[in-house]
């Protein structure tokens, strides 16, 4: 078929399916009787665009035609051309035409005064009927026009369990896993269902009672099944179970040839959805026809990579990346695999030694490839939003970042990753209750996720003062057969921050964990903090050095601990050299670098040098605060340090009036955003009293925190790190410090005895602690 003829036919097929919001690349390829990769190739050659872009632009061109009739509201037009979200329609329209639908008449494309040709009678009848059909569809099947809430009225919840493979060849077992995951992925596209993620539902023990599984996963229904080979045939047996009663509601067997596993998945998904809804309109069936790839081997590698990438170790992430790179070799049009590569390169930098420059380059490379292939895939849109989240400034770019993740949830309300990212974004801008709601939704979708449970417990413990509930969650997580390292170190630091500070138990938790998993960054990082809190500097240096060897280019696990130890030991020239090296050679954030340089010069007594650095690099920040342009709501965490040190410098220079002004501003921030960081509830009263030069208020806050009730985590290390250096000259401060140090050394003696018994004590350290 000539290329132009092919494009004309493809365009007509899209127009014939215009009302179907889920008519995408896979459906178009099926209608044309060709593979998805062939469709991509032919559209690319003829139109110089991706197949998904080809479909979307046809929809948008028809939308402009409808706008010219001046007969329909923009919201109706969005549905008429196959968008199930008017917000997403407006975004795409603006990107394509350069202006929004509402301003089309101002751009010479639509004029309310101009005479427009009257649509044909058949068209005038067809459009209202189409809108009526859509309205019925939305009303009957529960599809939300704008995404709706994550828990719509009458929502049904479902978990797909990992299918058993009954064949003799265990090497074929991945097909059962892939079939279950494809069924789950298809059903998760339906807004009528809450579908628990595979990472939770695939790990339950199916030998347990259905009621126990259902309660653990928080669902009403379970889908279970098995797969076997019979000659050249695949046979699947699938059943739908009432999770509360264990009663089997439906079962059926499906048989296809061994190459038709994706067709089998579509049929199973359709039947399950029909059992839950009794009727399934044809347009809605397309919601579950969204194949990520037609290559089974590529899908297997993708699923392995997604599972492996959840393990936040460098070698696990790099292995997952290797599998994904092999997956896209097998299917170069696998958009979701490119999206996952984007996500994992972001993780590799945080949990490993990948430098920031390489991270950004690889994330952008794979993100663009994914967007080119399928910009309407929820996973691709998530990768784009995640890229913006990592690259952007949360406070300055929060509207755009939030919009990106919400767009994903509009398309797929079951997208737990987007809910978790929105938790992080809203937490970063100080909207803690909103953030907590998104975290709870992420847990609702992925209830057995270690990370989500650990973060939930962390927030309950330090933000919402529900310490007992939080500790129970962490103990449960830590007692699992394969506990996450997060649950282990959170258990340790929660023990240390209990009333009175159980540092002996906390240290033993870390030490036991390091025996099982030596050189694990989380254990080393938090073990260093516990050691510094006990004035065990040699042990802290050991932990910091091991992290430095393992993560030489990671600023969080290498630079910051090394800088902190330099300050505690008052090795100020070393702190300056360290910071300069990291700024020049290792890509350390310039704001952090200059903040730390100014801090070191101030502690050295070189107030003028500290002042010059601060005014050279942060003068705009100070002007914005002084003029009222900068509000406490827009102050970033990275800007607290330069403001705080500037207050100290101003006081050292005798400018009390200006110091008081900035101190009042910073205290307003502390009072309004006391939950922004983990230990803020404890430290912000101290910081506020300090910057306001209120010695009595500071000593009262310090005494209450350390002794009454004794939430001690981080306090001694802050004092030794000269965090409150301007007060160190006062006898009242020195007296309280000696009391705190005596109690610290009492706890340290217990830990030293334990370490010696364990054989993890270097005798050289005895002299270092004298």
Automatic annotation (TrEMBL):
Q: Which UniProt keywords apply?
A: DNA-binding, Membrane, Transcription, Transcription regulation, Transmembrane, Transmembrane helix
Q: Does the keyword DNA damage apply?
A: no
The chain positions of domain HTH araC/xylS-type read 8-107
- Is Metal-binding among this UniProt entry's keywords? no
| Protein known as | Helix-turn-helix domain-containing protein
What is the native source organism of this protein? Answer: Robiginitalea aurantiaca
Regions that span the bilayer = 125-147
Q: Which residues form a coiled coil?
A: none
Classify the source by domain of life. Bacteria
